[in-house]
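The record is passed on directly below:
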Amino acid sequence: MYIIRSGEVQNVLIRWSCSCFLILSKCIRRYPPSKRNWIIAGVSCIYLFYVVSQVAHVLPQDRFSDRHKFKRTRGIFTPKFDNAFQDATGSPMAQNADVSSTASPKYNVVYITLKSKRRKPAIIRGTVRPKLRKKTVSKNKRIRPNTLNEVDKGSERKTRQEYESEISPRPLRNVYHSLNINTHNSDTDSHYSSIRIYSERAPPWLSKDDIEALRFLADCKITGIKEVSFTGRRNLLLFESLADAPLNSPGKYNHVGDDSVCQGRCGLIKRPLDMSEVFAFHLDRILGLNRSVPAASRKFSFFHDSQPSPVVLWDPSLPPTDNEVQSSVRMTWGSYQHSLKHRCWHRGVVPKAESGCSSIHHYEWSRLALFDFLLQVYNRLDRNCCGFRPRKEDTCVELGLHQDCADQDSIELVHIIHRKHDPRRLVLIDNKGYFDRDEDNLDFKLLEGIKELPEEAVSVLRSQRLREKLLQSLFLDQLYWESQGGRQGIEKLIDVIERRAKVLLTYINAHGIRVVPMDRST
């Protein structure tokens, strides 16, 4: 008996299938391409059907029969049991536990669908970015000066934008950031400093002593107010602060003298009409003259109807001026012109006794004339208003002095003052300027006899940066800034000074006035 092995059967089947494939391929090649494609597609469909039927027989039957037992709820597939499945006490599975133990166990599979994470956030159109709320600092909380890191960054950016749009006529290089210093002050309604310092440094034309003096005038705790009377002048009103008195401090404005008027540290209170003295102080520092006394604005609730008033630092180093012209050096217009011709103390040369020179250096008159011309302060050099057409409101008209211009050489100068320890340099006080005087009525007598002007001051006038510097400097005094109507009011004052500066520059060229460097120490 011939036995056919399984290996031989497989070989026969393979050979037969290969021969059939070759025969079919030869037959298919005889047909045109269109019929050939149809034949290949039909054979492929038959083969696909055969494969699918074989796979269906191999898979378990219970998966397809129990598919209806599952339901989908919110992406989670949970088994849905029929009523036949009961608890363990009465279920058929529990009754046939012995049979099911031998078979493979079945598990209840739970399918969980996960939503794909969005790579980019959704773009919501029409949304508005919420506004940043400015932090409110309680009154009892004390803010330390020069701690910029403790200030909220959002409010810092907002403050920088407001500051740049407020004071800069053009984009500024150095933008300064605001510091509110909380000082106890029972005489003012505000609980923060009205001296606004930006960045870690103040403007370069203001010294450390200037900033310290401005803060004292605006923020010190007043311990007393008293009235001081002097012969030949109106009574002075001083406010005193013992808490802020200098203790062995060698500062510029802390000279201790034998003056018994002020026991601690004092400031001179002036009328609200004299507010231009604050402007004059900042103009003096910007021009590099450094001859005026610090002045700031302050409110006093007990008089002047709480209007801002200029306060000037009381300097005990100034000698008492009990005379009528309130000067430590008494000079007439004639002697003043004589000293200009002799160039007293120029280049350190001691003047002769018969020259009639005073202790004031020659360059001081040049600084004084330039400063007074820009502000039109006529009280010092033109007391009787002989160089312009005065108005009824001017002091010379009220006192009847404008009628005594026949003998001008005998008219005495007013407010010619120097410090006790420095007789060569002038100290400019009572710097009340006049901004309502047109260019066709300027007092050119203030420039009479002047042959030189300080180079530093004239360079500022020519640089076309006077407006920018005045805006930066005056913005430090918040109370003065607001009392003049903000930037709009300050711009009007600067317009007047700029027009006068152009007139002065034209005068310099027309009269051949030399512009020479003048050391601040002389």
